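Before any further analysis, we paired sequence with structure tokens, yielding the entry below:
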Amino acid sequence: MNAAWQLWLQLFRRTPLLVVLANLLRAAALYFAVRWLLGSDEFLVVAASLYGVATWMWHTGQGYNLRGVCTAESFLLPNFRRRLLEYAAIDLAMWVLLPLVVAAVGRVPHLLLVGGGLLLIAATGLMMGSNPRSSAFIWPIFVVLGWMPSFMADLLKDALHSPFTPWLLLAIVALLLRFSVAPLLRIVDREADASPLESTSLGRMQTRGAPGEPRRMGAFGKRITALYEQLAERAMRRALTTYRRNPSFQQRMILVRRLLLPNDNPEAIGLRIVLVSAIVCFYFVAIMHRQHFNPVVIGAYAIMLSISRFPQLNVGMTRMRPNMADLYLTLAPETRTEYQQTISDALLVLVPISLLTALVYTALGAWLVHVPDPLRMLFVATIVSLAASLAALALHLIGPEGTTGRTIVNLVVLFGTMAVYWGGYWLVGALGYGWGGGLLALLALGFGAGVWFAAQREYVSRSPRFDAPIT
């Protein structure tokens, strides 16, 4: 019991808000269950809904807790796997067996299905907490279910009366546990850390907080990561060869960019656009079977997707501080200002990259859903994405390093960008491309350029920092 208590304390320390909310929802579900047992039948649905949400939240936290507990060093503890099994048995008794007893007292029909449903909710939460990339496999299921709501309703009615449904639920639960718990129980060597500015987003969801904890990626993710590494290595070799032949300032800047931004070479940018475009195509094909929506929102989504890169800049530059000392010694600048200016000029390439991705995604979305006026949307997206990229780069370059401050800055940039996009789209429609576009460009680009030049001046005036961040 002491081991189970310590594991519960670990869960409370890691996700205290989730633990409190889950237990408050469970207490509310218990209250309505008591009202139902006393004869108020209308409270049964409320109690079941609240308890289902509480179960999902609790086991999502349990999955997240297991990600930090199941490190290679933990398996050196005596009977570690057996203690985890005992903790799972206690959790099963508290969150599945007890509500089943209450349901049995109230003579709820289809008791086996209720138990299977509780196990399915718990296993889904456990998988989503222990394996964040599983969300990419879960949300398409709900999209498919939304295509045929009447068919799914009939299927569920038939499933209630089938004797094989409980066994099917148990098989799904076993499969979910296989994807969630089994990878955590394997002892693997830690892979080499990726660059903090890698920009592939493949391993970002798998990054775990425990020191020495390996990143667990699927076979597809590993193949794509290896392809990105090959492209980055080829681009670096090409830049080195060109610099040896022509050691100019421009080639020197390209070398710095290849070092700081390894996956922002032309080939890697093309690969990233292709991968995201494939997901976008699937998404738009899926929602075209749903209710109609305003196609103008595609441009807003494209811009939001393109500027989502910049918060990583703030985090990545902070993590790279100790390694930046080697770059400082290699560049051997005459002044600190020259070094800071070199870094800011190298990072400025993210602005045209962000603009390119926004235009590609906007054009692709406009083609998929047959936007009636794609030129207007592309025109507004060009101006707004350029201004938003300049502002986002500026704010995250000199912005706060704390999580709270960085989140606030990111929200301000996102909501501000969306407001400017919708306002600019209306302005161009009301005043035309000449007056409306000119006014939008004057306001948006003037603000973006002003913020960038002010931030660059502030960044250049700062002294370089090479101390490791405090975590």
Remarks:
- Residues 403-461 form the longest helix (59 residues).
